[in-house]
Amino acid sequence: MKIDKSKVKRILFITLSNIGDIVLTTPVISVLSGHFSDARLDVMVGPNGEELFKRHPAVFKVIVYNKRVSLGEKQRLIRKLRKVRYDLIVDMRNSLFPFLLGARYRTSPIQNIPRTVRHKKKQHLWKLKTIGLDVDDAPFYLHIAKEDLNFVEKIMGGLDKTKPIVAVSPGAKSEIKRWTKKGYTELISRLAGELSAHVIIVGDKVDKVLVKDIISAIKIDIVDLSGKTTLSQLAALLKKSHLVITNDSAPMHIGVAVGTKVLAIFGPTDPRLYGPTGANDRIMRKRLHCSPCEKAQCDFEHECMKYITSDEVFKTAKEMLSPYEP
Fold first, then answer.
1. Alpha-carbon gap, residue 32 to 11, rounded angstroms
2. HEC sequence for 84-147
């Protein structure tokens, strides 16, 4: 189905729920704002992702959708949105909203995506291709406000600018995606000790216990910001860093979106689908018979992560930081 662009004045973009998944859909907004610069663009997102869009220059309104609310509240939301009379709805959830809201144009929930289109970013963009929109070179975009940059400047202002800044995110929503605690402890010690790098640990509140265990085993001072930043502040922090080292997690996708070099550690998930896409990004993984398994629970002993050594990760990080120029 191809659309008549002249008839598109109001657009609703329905994105996903998890932060990393949401970031992977931001190129869709880049395409929509490019093709329909004069149209109203609203975004529907879960509560966790509201902050990523509320100050986005291309977004007119952010609609927070909580799937756990009552049926009555959902019906009220639908009635309210029907009054807007959206001309185009692009739905990453494959939900019933495009049909319930009666949009003139909408992406189909049934997609015959070619097998050659592997990465999730490209799969999301494929939906726009099916309605006749050009998606070539669509960039990620996260809006970083001045106050978020100021927040980061206060943190980094006193750091020695002749030394690299490395953001390390040892957590992940799923424990099975996490590299070993021992690996991160040894890696951070060597980054700070041998490379004199300023190491900043990032993550959400759920990662606090993990981070505390890592820090307690390290004798070198590092900055712990886990659970202490908003998503926008985290994006600003990663943008100002020289390298991000992370598991397959939201900070990995945010690091890619803001253009910082990313060293991503993969185990059960497939980097061909979810891996970093920057020209200078690197992936660490072990090619085992069982990996990637894409399972929520490991059938073995988590060898895909345990077999990745701190020596390997440190060597790659050192290569990515060299030559460091302040």
1. 9
2. CCCCEEEECCCCCHHHHCCCCEECCCCCCCCCCCCCHHHHHHHHHHCCCCCCCCCCCCCCCCHH
Q: What is the DSSP letter of 179?
A: P
Question: Which single residue is written with the structure tokens 């006193």?
Answer: 158
Nearest to 306 by CA among 289, 285, 280: 285
User: Are 49 and 135 within 8 A, CB to CB?
Assistant: no
Q: What are phi and psi of 50, to 5 degrees?
A: -55, -45
Six token digits for residue 117: 């289109």
Dig out the tokens for 149 from the structure: 């940059």
Parallel, antiparallel or unpaired: strands 88-91 and 105-106: parallel
Instruction: Give the other-Cβ count within 10 Å of 42's Cβ.
Output: 19
> Could you identify the residue written with the tokens 């996903």?
16
Of 314, 311, 313, 293, residue with least CA distance to 302? 293
CB-based contact 300:281 (threshold 8 Å): no
**Residue 108 in contact with residue 98, Cβ under 8 Å?**
no
pTM more than 0.85: yes
Q: Are 111 and 92 in contact (CB under 8 A)?
A: no
Tell how far CA 258 is from the center of its chain.
10
* The token pair that represents 294 in the structure block: 């894409």
CA distance 10 to 42: 8
Nearest to 52 by CA among 60, 62, 42: 62
What strands, in cross-sheet order, belong to the sheet with 40-45? 61-64, 40-45, 10-14, 88-91, 105-106
Q: Say how far apart CA 31 and CA 138 lie, in whole Å.
A: 6
pLDDT digits (tens, 9 = 90+) for 89-110: 999 999 999 999 999 999 988 8
- How many other CB atoms sit within 10 Å of the CB of residue 239? 20
List pLDDT tens digits, range 18-42: 999 999 999 999 999 999 999 999 9
